[in-house]
Amino acid sequence: MTASARPLGADLARIAVFAALIVVLGTVVVPVPGGVPITAQTLGVMLAGLVLGARRAPLAILVVLALAAAGLPVLAGGRGGLGVFVGPSVGYMIGWIAGVVVIGLIAHGARFTWWRAGIAALVGGILVVYLFGIPIQALITGVPLGPTILSSLVFLPGDLIKAVVAVLLAVALRRAYPRAFPAARRVVHAG
């Protein structure tokens, strides 16, 4: 069955499962000065990108953000409501959307492998999220970019661990249930 022939209900269920996973992982919170807590939600974001791919993973993120906008306590520490979209962590949430697209493109751009998944988690799950999160955090908090970058380094060790865990889980899931992943693209050579 090709990705386009996969039943819509199966895709919606996978999107909902990953949205729920991201919400649940938000209950693991370590407060940090500066307003952006250390959470396990980025582990869920990385997993969504690795498993759902570039087309479906952003929908899981958008579900979480829509629930937060509706006031449900789905973000780190039980936060929700429109106020979170003007707080210091909004850039990271925007980065989740771009990050899962990058993760999906790298991980599924060719045959899914552990090393491709690792690169995807590092580039999309950390670098892209930081590229959105840090400058917006600096803007909202009024702290210059340099000190904001330095203070954000506290997140890096945990994010590296989350990337490793996400890759291990995605590789194991790929072996156990390959249907959860986007269908591999077939390359057609002209000539």
Report the total helices. Answer: 6
Proportion in β-strands: under 5%
Major β-sheet, in short? 2 strands, antiparallel
Proportion of helical residues: 55-70%
- Radius of gyration based on Cα positions: 17 Å
The stretches of 5 or more residues where confidence is low (pLDDT under 50) are none
The CATH level-2 architecture is identified as Orthogonal Bundle
Tally the beta strands: 2
| Overall 3D shape | globular
Average of the residue pLDDT scores:
90
**SSE-based structural type:** mainly alpha
SSE order and pairing:
Blueprint: H1 8-25, E1 29-30, E2 38-39, H2 41-69, H3 90-108, H4 114-141, H5 145-152, H6 156-176
Antiparallel strand pairs: 1-2
Helix pairs in contact: 1-2, 2-3, 2-4, 2-6, 3-4, 4-5, 4-6
Short description, anyone?
The chain has 191 residues and is an all-alpha fold. The protein has helices at 8-25, 41-69, 90-108, 114-141, 145-152, 156-176; strands at residues 29-30, 38-39.
Describe the structure.
There is one protein chain. By secondary structure, this protein is mainly α. It has one domain (8-178): Arp2/3 complex 21 kDa subunit ARPC3 (Orthogonal Bundle), CATH 1.10.1760. It has six helices and two strands; from the N terminus they run αββααααα. The protein has helices spanning 8-25, 41-69, 90-108, 114-141, 145-152, 156-176, and strands spanning 29-30, 38-39. Strands 1-2 form a two-stranded antiparallel sheet. β1 (29-30) and β2 (38-39) form a beta hairpin. α1 packs across α2. 39% of the residues are buried.
